[in-house]
Amino acid sequence: MAEENEKETSENESGGSKLKLIIIAVVALGILGGGGFAGWTMFLKDKEEKPPELATTDAAQTAGAGAQDPNVFGQIFEMETFVVNLSDGGGKRYLKTKIALEYIANEHIQAELSGRLPQLRDTILLVLSSKNMEEVQALDGKIAIRGELIMRLNQLIKQGRIRNLYFTEFVIQ
């Protein structure tokens, strides 16, 4: 009988110590995971969320002194809605977007933008319709499309420069 009691208490102690060890390990992992998450949100998350800057410095430098200061806003040229079929999916997927162009005002660019509207729209339609679903869904893809459009549109314009391009509506279906 005494031997049975000793056996039970030693089994209870070893089972209890295993349980304590498991609890300590779970708490330690929780603390390490929480600390890792806190470090990520404080230090790395801000860097990941900032979109990379577009290569518009050449356009900004040629447009005049106001274009060199990123705090100076340019004039906005609103364009009508674009609806294009995406290049994948057999024409079943489409993109509907509205675009606004920012430019540094001078006496000729507004008239040139209005006069070249068919060429600007054609260029935008060709670029957008050449993209597939993956390119238009990802943030990096949208930023790349923005940069490509700015570059191609600036090749058409002779009297000034487009400083930035804004998607004011962007629907993929």
Structure in words:
The chain has 173 residues and is of the alpha+beta class. The chain has 2 domains: 1-50; 57-172, Band 7 domain (Tetrahydropterin Synthase, Chain A), CATH 3.30.479. Helix content is 59%, strand content 17%. It is built from 7 helices and 4 strands; from the N terminus they run H-H-H-E-E-E-H-H-H-H-E. The chain starts with a helix and ends with a strand. Residues 47-67 have low confidence and may be disordered.
What's the number of extended β-strand segments? 4
Global morphology: elongated
**Average of pLDDT:** 78
CATH architecture of the largest domain: 2-Layer Sandwich
What is the CATH C-level name of the largest domain?
Alpha Beta
Distance, first to last CA:
77 Å
Properties at a glance:
elongated, single chain, 4-stranded antiparallel β-sheet, 7 helices, Tetrahydropterin Synthase, Chain A, 173 residues
